[in-house]
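Table 4 source record.
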Amino acid sequence: MLHKVNNLEKNYVSNAFYLDEFSIFEITGTPRNVNFPRWMQIAHCEDKRLSMILLSGESIELPDNLQIEKDTRLNIRYSAALPNISADGLVFEICFLESDQNHTADLICALPIAGGMQPPYWRMINLDISHLAGHKGRLIFRCQPGAENDPSGDWLAISDLCIGREDQLSLLKARSFHEHRSRNEIEHFSIVYRHSMYSSIQDQHAELAASKPRPVRKFIQGNDVAEISNGTAITDVEPLPGEFPYDYATRLLAGCIPQTPPNFLERLKSRAQSGNIVKVLSLCSGAARIEADYAAQVGINVEWSLLDINVDLLGLASKQFAPEIKLDLIEANVNELSFSGEKWDIILCVSALHHIVELERLMKFCHNSLNEDGEFWSIGEYVGRNGNRLWPDAREEANKLFHQLPKQYRINHHTSELDDDIPDNDYSVGCFEGIRSENIEPLLDRWFHPVDVYRRNCFLWRLINLTYSDNYDLKNPDDRKWIVRMVNAEVEHFRAGGRGTELFGVYRPRLLDYPKTKP
């Protein structure tokens, strides 16, 4: 039994799949003389989702052209299709058969469903199948009887079945059952807006307008969508004296973005010039290079508290501040901070939040430790994928350019080897690098109001960071040309919706004033 493809899926058949009535798949092993619906709503489960039904002994095989990538995930929602199945239950098997291979399919996992009366809850798994990266083949899903080989009543319901790159799964799930959802939505809202709660107002408007129904036209889609460019590509730019390749690249990038980051120094100067003492707390201050530079320019009206777990780095930091600057050195684990009663006007963190585990605790501490007109500053923070990995779409674009680089630019100075692809290691495995970086912005939004937020750098940092920056000599025009190409590729990806991973932001506490209740 072969099913047709949904037009919405046509661009994704090679590396992604979603199941609905119009997807391409083949079903084998169907028993004869058994009447059953292939698609049905599962009445005994919550949500009563429309599902595909597999009987015991049946298999559904997806097309033989599925390309597995490193970030490929398999998302399935399933249940017994009947409220009561055989006493020994059933087993839902997931297998992979590589193209051009004659051996049997390899079992990925077996998911048993206990027999008897069924609970009203769906089961859902999100399975990482990136161990098959680089392989091409077909996925096979089987409904098998339980340990006693009793198939009676063993109907399996599959409501969601999506295979795709991790960052595409949400889109693929939303695309499934498009026709079914569209019919229901049109019918639903046609009924809703005829309810008296809405119709009475609509009837009044219609009476006042004294209008008549008008013809409805269909929107004609174009074949191609022209991309809008917000600027021209940059060309060769002379480096500044003593400028490093990474700084050169980020300077060019900043010049391509029609927005400027917050001017933290000017904000601090403005506060200091008001005449009041400004108290600043720097979290995870380390050697405090940026803080010391600010302190040298704003003077004695700013009092600095530097907090770090590393006493040695606090010692290095203290030597950079002039004797007349009031300096408070605090040894503390930022993961264990709680409100002490002390308040600051500014709490800042320079590119360190992505090393912190207890972000919720820290956000609460910062919120409660700021004065009412206080600000939290995030300076150059990494807010990308956990483990300092590139998002899949960014890695794909970055590798397009990386593959074009001559060999001398692809030497990895950490491994001394020539890289064919940009490494995709999870750096949080052995340390706290990017341990919860994906959670930083959502938690900032929970505790603070944004005042001035600036993001950039989807993948440029990975192409020109310490791993590869020593491969470039800014005095060499050819080396600069490759960096310029990187910047232009980064800008185009950013304009196309790429996610910036470098955050500069000013935030104010989300103070909530509750109305007083009358006695």
